[in-house]
Design brief:
Largest sheet: 4 strands, parallel
Order of helices and strands: HEHEHEHHEH
Radius of gyration: 15 Å
Number of helices: 6
Structural class: alpha/beta
Amino acid sequence: MITESVHQGNSQIEIITTASKIPKEVGPEYAKALEYLGAKNAAVLHIENREEASQPEIVERVKKADVVMFTGGDQLRLTSYFRGTELHDLLLKKYQNEDFIYAGTSAGAAAASINMIYQGSSSEALLKER
């Protein structure tokens, strides 16, 4: 069940740009797109290393979030920066126990799966080994 605040556009949304090679450029674009769609409280979190993933101010912002959205880019960067950090533990706890939405585009979605695809080229994506 999604809370009424999500339906009214009042959710606190944190956009995490870690996967992107151009995080300072894509973050504001995602925020602008979400605002266009009716979101009133979208903010951007630039997390550039593992240490930042456990900083109290970042963890606190995610604690208050109803939605966390991960941008596209390099999903291996996401897993290597976040796995085993306080932020990772918090995201799992919120996803499993709260009225919380995890969203992601491309790498942001791929990093959330049990089996994560990474590397290779798009021209090989549809090939299957025999």
